[in-house]
Amino acid sequence: MELTKPTIVLVHGAFADGSGFTEVARRLVADGFPVVAAANPLRGLSSDAEQVGALLDSIEGPVVLVGHSYGGAVISSAASGRPGVRALVYLAAFVPDAGESAQSLVEKFPGSTVGESLKPVPLPGGQVDLYIDPRVFHAHFAADVPAEEAALFAITQRPASGVALGEPASVPPAWQTIPSWNLISGADLIIPPAAQEFMAKRSAATVEVVEGASHLVFVSHPDRTVAFMETAAAAVA
User: Fold this and answer.
1) Is residue 10 packed enough to be buried (19+ CB in 10 Å), middle (13-18) or exposed (0-12)?
2) What's phi and psi for 30, nearest 5 deg?
3) Of 147, 133, 129, 122, which is closest to residue 190 (Cα–Cα)?
4) In 3D, which of 90, 87, 28, 83 has the Cα closest to residue 57?
5) What percent helix, strand, coil does the chain show, rounded to 5?
6) Given this structure, which CATH class describes domain 7-235?
7) How far apart are CA 133 and CA 120, in angstroms?
8) 71, 18 in Cβ contact below 8 A?
9) Going by C-beta distance under 8 Å and a sequence separation of 6 or more, which residues neighbour residue 97?
10) Domain ranges of the chain
11) Which 3-state string (H, E, C) describes 12-44?
């Protein structure tokens, strides 16, 4: 009797939403995996992790938890203390330790264009929402995605609050106890490859580098991304 495959939970990052995983999800479903795309609120790291954690608690059976970019920080907290999560998969992602934020990690190594790419929108109460300026979205965020497709991603992007990107992780990260896999985008202009490699090595992740890939590696290379996820799923089956 064939064993039930784990549920793959996809957590998007900042300046994105779950629709970016469409081609990845299509392939996973065709391969027989249950798939859930979480709605990441992008409001604050601890509150975002709590919401994703609540979703995880509703899923029966083992889970492979996947995070892109800021979503990597979210899954690192959300999976903590949840034994149903058997593997963590990071896609061009932040993999913070306790006390680190997305902002502090992106500033740790040279090569990121994120600071010059942000378009702030002041909010009532003194907070700020951050978008990637559509004028640079293709070049800085999605250089290996066709220009017309990148333009649509720029239009439909969801902002992250300044609070979310600046909030440090406050719990021991789940990657200390859960096996992890890290897909590094080799030409990333948002999270420099050197930063991704540093975080992957520190977390003792199984690593694969996609040379020439932009920050949207899972959009430009869906087949390779899916194969990477399925390798993680098979390893913890």
Assistant:
1) buried
2) -60, -30
3) 133
4) 83
5) 45, 20, 40
6) alpha beta
7) 9
8) no
9) 169, 173, 202
10) 7-235
11) CCCCCCHHHHHHHHHHHHHCCCCEEEECCCCCC
| Structural Rg of the chain based on CA atoms | 16
Residue with tokens 């090569």: 111
> pLDDT tens digits, the chain, 237 residues: what are they?
346 899 999 999 999 999 999 999 999 999 999 999 999 999 999 999 999 999 999 999 999 999 999 999 999 999 999 999 999 999 999 999 999 999 999 999 999 999 999 999 999 989 999 999 999 999 999 999 999 999 999 999 999 999 999 999 998 999 999 999 999 999 999 999 999 999 999 999 999 999 999 999 999 999 999 999 999 999 998
**What tokens appear for 177 in the block?**
């106890």
Q: Tell me the one-letter amino acid at 8.
A: I
